[in-house]
Amino acid sequence: MILSDKEIEKLLEEKQIDVSPLDINLVGPSGLDMRLGYQMRVFKEDSDVEHLNPFDPASEHATELVEPEDGRFIIEPGQVVLASTLERIELPEHLVARLESRSSLTRLGLVILGTSGSVEPGFRGHLTIPIINTGKLPILMYPEMCFCKLAFETMSTKAATPYYARESSKYVDQKGPVASRLHMEKKE
Question: Can you give the pTM of this predicted structure?
Answer without folding.
Answer: 0.88
